[in-house]
Amino acid sequence: MGLYTQSLFSSFRSASTWFEVYAAFSTFMMLLRAAINDLIPHQFRSFIVSKLEAFLSKYQPNNHVSLKINQFWDKDAGDRNELFDAVQDYLPTRITHTYKSLKVGKLPFQKHLELEVDESEEVVDQFEGTKFTWKLHEDSNEESNKQKKYSFELTFNEKHREGVLDRYIPHVLKTYEAMKAERRIINIYSRMDGYWSESELSHPATFDSLALSPQLKKDIMDDLDRFLRRKQLYKKVGKPWKRGYLLYGPPGTGKSSLIAAMANYLKFDIYDLELTSVYSNSDLMRSMKEASNRSIVVIEDIDCNQEVHPRSTPNSLSDDQDSDSVNVGAKVQSKKFTLSGLLNYMDGLWSSGGEERIIILTTNHKEKIDPALLRPGRMDMHIHLSFLETKAFRVLASNYLGIEGDHPLFQQIDDLLDKIQVTPAVVAEQLMRIEDPCAALEALVTFLKEMDKDCNSES
């Protein structure tokens, strides 16, 4: 009994001692934490924690894998890896103020600054809740007399291996394509002496700046968007991926501005084809073959060419007969330019020579053009650009005078525009003559009243 009591007392004393030690340690840790919070700055504490995590991670099981993306797929052949280019452009968009080492510069003829990841810096990206770490390396096994070559290393947790290939890499590529399209320089090509002459398109027109009715602008933009996303549908039904637009109306109604706005909206190059410079059907085919994908082929004032006027002779082919003939390239005359040659380019075998292409015809006189040229499948959307309307005038007032919202003179101008026919170009010229907005509107009212007076006197 005595031994049992002594043992029980010893156990109790031991438990009491451990409790006292635990209590003392807890108190010490609370005091230490309070001292650290008071004496050590938050940034320095975060730095210590990050270093401890990095140190401890070295002794944890390595469950990370890496992918290497070389600058060149085949070093001997010099084939550039498009994925490397995509990553190179994508990563600067993930750079934040936390990164300390970046490369910045401006290339000739470019309007924006270039940012690149430095070799000494890791870039961390978050996608769908997963952390991805990128690092740029210089290949060390290259000969010193050759140009330096680089590679990107992508590191991630191995459990996300499938997601990287199925979703993350496609996301990088898709973002890269969108960025490339956004900053793409749009060129306009004019045909001279049988060759395309290139220059940068500097026309600033956008759909926001066009003096068109809001509904018409919406219809055009919706049609363009629908065309862009229907590549697989065109392929499925066996049609070339192209779209035709006819712009018709009086001079000065904004046909050229609309073409520029479409090019700026789509980021498509423009090929301005003057039919008077086309000497034969084979010349036309060769010129169109040289045009790139994602382009707009423009034939302005097409009614000025006699070949496209309505056929009225007894020997003229019917529309169906013409359709059959233009789909057989061997039947197209090559010694001179003909309507059949143009139709063959638009919807015959030659029309498959380019993808994502838009064809635009402009005319002041739609009735002068052969109906075979204007039917659906050739000119899919006919856009009538008419005289200035009241809603479109609001756009001009905003563009030229900076007037947003309403103005006391607007109603008077609207009443005059309902009675007379005046083009946007004529009104724009009037608004540019006076800098003061109110004075410019007053002068416009006087000008429109004079037009109305002249119209009444003539009638």
From TrEMBL:
- Family of the protein in this entry: Belongs to the AAA ATPase family. BCS1 subfamily.
Q: Which residues form the AAA+ ATPase domain?
A: 241-389
Which SMART domains does the record associate with it? AAA (SM00382)
One annotated GO molecular function: ATP hydrolysis activity
Under InterPro entries, the record lists:
AAA+_ATPase, AAA_N_dom, At3g28540-like_C, ATPase_AAA_core, ATPase_AAA_CS, Mitochondrial_chaperone_BCS1, P-loop_NTPase
Q: Which UniProt keywords apply?
A: ATP-binding, Hydrolase, Magnesium, Nucleotide-binding
Listed name of the protein: AAA+ ATPase domain-containing protein
Task: State the PROSITE patterns in the record.
Answer: AAA (PS00674)
| Cofactor names | Mg(2+)
The residues forming a coiled coil are: none
Q: Which Pfam families match?
A: AAA (PF00004), AAA_assoc (PF14363), AAA_lid_At3g28540 (PF25568)
What species was this sequence derived from? Psophocarpus tetragonolobus
Q: Which reaction does it catalyse?
A: ATP + H2O = ADP + phosphate + H(+)
- List, in alphabetical order, the GO biological process terms annotated in this UniProt record: response to stress
